[in-house]
Amino acid sequence: MTRVIEIVVLLFVVARVTRLVTADEITRRPREAIVRRLPEGSPGAYLLFCRWCLSVWVAALAAAAWWHLSDVSRWSGLWWVDVPTVALALSYATGLLVRAEPEE
């Protein structure tokens, strides 16, 4: 049960951080300042506005942190299996949560 709770919490952390970076008003000015410094059409600029795209990277960091910090036993016991698997699942679930949000 603890593993499930950890994964659910991780999902909401990934979803919230992704939204914070890509869409929240509180980060609008820093996001726009970064985009102004990047070349036109830059993948980095696109990443700052694409929740599906950024969630992959946020989920990868969250999954690696989960693997390193959690005491819960892993299903495979291999970091190179569990971290990418959890990261992809978190990213996809974040994308589904994004679709459930109302359009702004």
Automatic annotation (TrEMBL):
<keyword id="KW-1133">Transmembrane helix</keyword>
<protein>
    <recommendedName>
        <fullName>DUF1360 domain-containing protein</fullName>
    </recommendedName>
</protein>
<feature type="transmembrane region" description="Helical">
    <location>
        <begin position="43"/>
        <end position="67"/>
    </location>
</feature>
<feature type="transmembrane region" description="Helical">
    <location>
        <begin position="79"/>
        <end position="98"/>
    </location>
</feature>
<keyword id="KW-0472">Membrane</keyword>
<keyword id="KW-0812">Transmembrane</keyword>
